[in-house]
Design a protein that fits this description.
Largest sheet: none
Number of domains: 3
Strand content: under 5%
Number of helices: 13
Shape: flat
Mean pLDDT: 80
Distance between the termini: 54 Å
């Protein structure tokens, strides 16, 4: 195998490894924030003991040190021009959809982009011959990959979350309609969904849990549901949130509107599936023309061609 191919494979492997490390660091940052919040709540309920203080002073793991380094790097450039260029409104929306639009999440995301933009060209400098004609384009390409790769991963992550929201939304509407039908208030319905149905609604259940926590801490119901309505860019979810807010503010029977809403949503999903099926049939037609048709022609016309060739060979022999 030639050296350029080995170099390309090494660069691709490095990119994938750094991307995987970045995703792991972002996920563990969220877990660290949740653990820190739980510890803060526990410390407020009881006095801190020397044993707890000793545990908090233990040595951090390597990924925690990496998160701290990325966060420090991101905070250093977040308020400057580089931060404004690399943390656009689109990036903040993607972080919000991934539930990482916090001060630490933004700093880690910015630090990861800057670290990859610096690390990838340095790695290529170790592999490429100095002074070669391809050195400058390769370094520019590595710099661009380092800047854009975290954003591509974050975009794919947010897209996956939006699809999960679409899949969980009909079940959420059915649960609300069922709970409203047995006389439970809207606040109690959201509380029951948070406590008992988070297994079947992992994403929306988590969002409802955050909304309930915000509402319990004094926010209005519309403010607590703002993230659920705005973050995922889902028109149907926004309509559902508006129904919840109106029922919370004015009351009234909501079973029939929810039933009609669920039926309309299912009809939309059926139309979407029919559209996807139609596009898939067109793609399969092209695939069949490129794969099945040559084989079919070979099977059907092959014996005739062989017979014709043998006949011509006999005629030439005579």
């Amino acid at each position: 195998m030639s050296a350029p191919i080995l170099l390309a494979l090494s660069a691709v492997s490095l990119l994938l490894g750094l991307a995987l490390i970045g995703a792991i660091l972002l996920q563990r940052s969220r877990q660290e924030e949740q653990v820190a919040q739980a510890i803060d709540r526990a410390l407020k309920q009881q006095a801190a003991t020397p044993a707890v203080e000793a545990e908090t002073g233990t040595e951090r793991r390597w990924w925690q040190r990496g998160l701290q380094a990325l966060e420090a790097l991101g905070r250093r450039f977040e308020s400057g021009r580089i931060g404004r260029l690399l943390l656009t409104s689109e990036d903040r929306l993607l972080l919000d959809q991934a539930n990482r639009n916090t001060s630490a999440g933004r700093a880690i995301y910015l630090g990861l982009r800057l670290a990859l933009a610096i690390a990838l060209p340095l790695v290529l400098l170790l592999w490429l011959p100095s002074g070669g004609p391809r050195l400058v384009p390769a370094l520019l390409a590595a710099f661009a990959c380092g800047l854009l790769l975290p954003k591509f991963i974050l975009n794919a992550w947010a897209s996956n979350l939006r699809k999960r929201v679409d899949n969980e939304l009909p079940l959420l509407i059915d649960l609300l309609r069922l709970l409203q039908g047995i006389g439970v208030s809207m606040d109690q319905s959201l509380q029951i969904i948070d406590e008992r149905f988070r297994v079947v609604l992992p994403l929306l259940g988590r969002e409802i849990h955050d909304a309930n926590v915000a509402y319990a801490h004094g926010r209005q119901r519309a403010q607590s549901l703002r993230r659920l309505a705005d973050s995922f860019d889902n028109h149907n979810l926004q309509n559902l949130v508006q129904i919840i807010i109106q029922v919370h503010a004015h009351g009234g029977a909501v079973q029939e509107p929810l039933r009609q809403f669920a039926e309309r949503l299912r009809e939309q999903r059926k139309m979407t599936m029919k559209e996807r099926t139609g596009k898939l049939s067109v793609k399969m037609t092209l695939v069949m023309m490129l794969t099945l048709l040559p084989a079919l022609m070979l099977v059907l016309a092959g014996p005739a061609v062989i017979s014709l060739a043998s006949t011509l060979a006999k005629l030439r022999g005579h």
